[in-house]
Amino acid sequence: MLLQLLRRSREHFISSFADVADADSRRKPAESSWCILETVEHLAMAETYMLRLITEMRRPKTPGLPDREQVFLTVIADRSRKSRAPEPSQPAGRFANLDDAAARFRSSRDRTIQFVEQCNEDLRTTEVTHPHPAAGIVSTFEMLIIMAQHAERHALQIEEIKNNLALHTATAGSQG
After folding, report:
1. Is residue 22 one of the residues assigned to a domain?
2. pLDDT (tens digit, 9 = 90+) per residue, 78-98?
3. What is the pTM of this model?
4. Is 78 contained in some domain?
């Protein structure tokens, strides 16, 4: 199940900006919004950090920690609730272009998939040592769901950006 989620969300995320020119990836639908490049940068950095948590910073699961797998499967990708990204994953111009940012995401996601493929332990019995900014303490299994759904969330965000830019361009062009 995890492998399917991780692979499917990787493909959905990458395909969400596959047809976007690098110059267009820098356009913002509004001053306070992220552009596509910033969105990809954010996910690349968040994915890299979360990969470190699941591979290097686990401990036995705290007794009584609730099972929230089903909640994370539905809530994380929901774009109706906005949330602020933690500082380390805020866009900061780390990548020269969209291809570089996408390559960083792909590399992290591929290593995450490899970790899951090679893991022999029950990831429901461990937790990551640093609380998730919104969910608190999560099992390693739940963090992997969060990673997959986080990519889905930002694929939807990129579609919103593309739609808003297309609407903005069409409106600006018709006001001639």
Report:
1. no
2. 887 777 777 778 889 999 999
3. 0.89
4. yes
